[in-house]
Amino acid sequence: MVSFKIGTVNAYYAKLSMMAVDLTAEIHLGDLVSINSQEFKISKIKNEHIFIDFARKGETVVINADFPVAIGDELVRS
Question: What CATH code is carried by the domain that includes residue 73?
Fold first, then answer.
């Protein structure tokens, strides 16, 4: 299966289990993505303090983090 980069982590909020991501591709709720070969489903996308259903390329959004991540980690579509 071919996977491609859709964003880069620029912040991690451990207490909230969320991460901020600079997007290089569009994402939608329910998308299956991975970081460091760990797959997870996008269940929350937040932009400007509002929960949304999708985000476009070039936006910085906050999404759920099912496990700890590091700044600079790459988000890829599985």
Answer: 2.40.30.10
